[in-house]
Amino acid sequence: MSATAVFHVEHSRCSFRWLPLPLPVAYMPSEAPPQATSGTSPLQPPAKVLRTKTLAVVNQKGGVGKTTTAINLGAALALEGHSVLIIDCDPQANTTGGLGFRRQKDDEPHRLSVYDVLLGPTTLAEATQPTPIATLSLVPGSKNLVGANIELVSVPRREFRLHDAIHRLTSTDQHYTFILLDCPPALDLLTLNALVAAEGLLVPLQAEYFALEGISELISTLDRVAQAFNPELGLEGVLLTMYDDRTNLSQQVTENLKAFFGDKLFKTTIPRNIRLAEAPSHGKPVAMYDARSRGAEAYQELAIEVLTREGIESPRMKERKSNATPKKEMKFWPYNK
Ligand SMILES: Nc1ncnc2c1ncn2[C@@H]1O[C@H](COP(=O)(O)OP(=O)(O)OP(=O)(O)O)[C@@H](O)[C@H]1O
Ligand SMILES: [Mg+2]
Question: Which of 61, 62, 95, 332 is the most exposed place for a label (fewest CB within 10 A)?
Answer without folding.
Answer: 332
